Amino acid sequence: MTTQLITGVFPPMITPFKGNGDLDLDAHRYNVEKWNEDELAGYVILGSNSETTLLEPEEKRLLIEMTARYRQKDRWLIAGTGMESTRATIQMTTLAASLDVDAALVITPSFYPGQLNEEVLRAHFLRVADAAPIPIILYNVPKFTNVNMPVELVVELARHQNIIGIKDSSGNIGQMARLKSLLGERFNILAGTASVWFPALTLGVSGGIMALANCLPNECSLIRQLYEQGAHAENARDWYNRILPVNEAVTAKFGVAGLKYACEVAGYKAGLPRLPYQPLTPEQKTYIDKLFKAINLFKQ
Question: How many CA atoms lie within 13 A of 285 on its CB side?
């Protein structure tokens, strides 16, 4: 990329699977080309909503390759490369860089939470940043890792020239506000969930990597566009309130299975979750159908 400023909306891309559980690369290509037509700033491959922990190394490589091949070239391509070990994270980041990825999203290690103090996290991220051939974006998602990166540590890591931002999926708007006040415009703070998207915009955050952007990319982008027009901030808040029930359904309530079904409703090819995780029941699908119908009633 020609700039390290990251603005706009990114989907942490779903991974389509066939009925037998195999990776469906044709469906993935279809989704990438459909997202190319949407109001997005780029693509995040191998994020939490990509079912990354269930993917094999070769599947990860194929997904990155196909996304890089069919994406719009003037948009960011970010790949989740964080692994449990520093060594494996560096290897995965180096591979991603060789496949035309612009930046790496590096999640905190999490398997031994009792040992993941600031010293361990600092050493891990600095070693990765030193070795990585592409910029690093920290990924803080305590919901999945049970590790919440201290604000002070993020501020310290932000001094490294190869660490350019953080995706904060803590859902803690106070924490995001503190990061923004301490780091200002020199560091990319990205909203990690649509539940904080409008409040984040009021703090000066202008980028987000959000599960909801998989199925409602244009609506997520519209909220930012309306807010930045100033006089339309009230309309931005209205749209934010409209999509919140869908976001709750595809994150906290039903998780990836709900997100994948919502994507199918919205015209993308999502397939089923990979085992052992289960698809939605008919009753759960009806719940999401009703949420989408409610949004459609208000479309302008």
Answer: 12
SS (H, E, C) 102-124: CEEEEECCCCCHHHCCHHHHHHH
Instruction: Show the domains of the chain with their CATH numbers.
Output: 8-241 (3.20.20.70)
Q: Check: pTM over 0.85? Answer yes or no.
A: yes
Hey, what are 186's tokens?
């020199």
Quickly count: other Cβ atoms within 10 Å of residue 4's Cβ. Answer: 14
User: Per this entry, what is the length of the chain?
Assistant: 300
What would the two tokens of residue 124 be?
């891990």
Q: How much is the average pLDDT of 94-106? A: 98
pLDDT of 297 = 44
* Residues that are catalytic: 167
CB 221 within 8 A of CB 247: no
Helix (H, G, I), strand (E, B) or coil at 255: helix
CA distances (Å), origin 18, targets 27, 28, 84, 97, 207: 9, 11, 28, 28, 32
